[in-house]
Amino acid sequence: MTGLVPDRYTLQARWIPAIAFISVPILLLMAWFAELRGLWTVAPFATVGLAAAAMLGSWVGKKGKSVEAILFRKWEGVPTTALLRHTDATLDRATKARYHHILETNCAGFRSASLEEEMAAPSSADDQYSSGVRWLQAQIRDRKTAPLVHEANISYGFARNLFGVRCAALGLASVSIAASLMVLAIGYWSECRAGPVEALVSTASGLAVLLCWVYMVDEASVKRAGVAYAKALLEVLDKLPRSLP
Predict the structure, then answer these.
(1) Is 141 helix (H, G, I), strand (E, B) or coil?
(2) Among the listed residues 61, 228, 244, the one whose alpha carbon sits nearest the alpha carbon of residue 145
(3) Which helix (H) or strand (E) holds 166?
(4) Which pTM was predicted?
(5) How far apart are CA 28 and CA 213, in angstroms?
(6) HSE of 186 in the Cβ direction (CA atoms, 13 Å)?
(7) Displacement of CA 231 from its chain's centroid (Å)
(8) Which residues of 202-236 are buried (b: 16+ CB within 10 A; e: fewer)?
(9) What is the mean pLDDT of each run of 10 residues along the chain (245 residues)?
(10) Angstrom distances, CA of residue 144 to CA of 50, 147, 148, 149, 229
């Protein structure tokens, strides 16, 4: 992030999940309070929403990192490391052997373990694979070098951070919808200047968003994005000039 202008990663992987997190209560507030939908209040309200998203963005990123550590333990490793293991079937053997050879040729100190060595000392083999991955990431820090990898990283950060705030988002959305349904039940809309149709539509929309959190934001989506990033990163090996320092 440069100054007040967010970079693409911050915007898509942190701010958008933050906006999704607060979307249901904002939607319902605008339905119940008509004055929030006026021309002179939409801009300030949107500004406050963006400011909230910016402030929540840091928290969203931390939640994503916390859940990432849990997922990596559950998956028995980082996807970028796992794809280099002989025991992982995501990549075919020929491609994996080629990647190992390129890393051995170009990454100082890298030594590919054999299948037997990997099974006998998996931690030691993973250390080698992780070292190779870190070296590769260092070669493409400039986003122009490997734009597809950085796109995949943004997609992974977005999926991970959404999943990181999923439980909190479900709680916030549920409380907001329950409050809206309670107000509808007691006929409170007349005092809030919002017609029942508007309130019903917004509550239904809030329920739709809640269902999206339940059924579309899950561990599987994070793993798919993680594997996609790992594949994109390792594919760079075929495009790098040989004998890099």
Answers:
(1) coil
(2) 244
(3) helix 166-185
(4) 0.87
(5) 17
(6) 8
(7) 17
(8) bbebbbebbeebeeebeeebbbebbbbbbbbbbeb
(9) 71 92 85 63 65 85 96 95 95 95 92 93 95 94 89 97 96 90 70 63 87 95 97 93 57
(10) 29, 6, 9, 10, 16
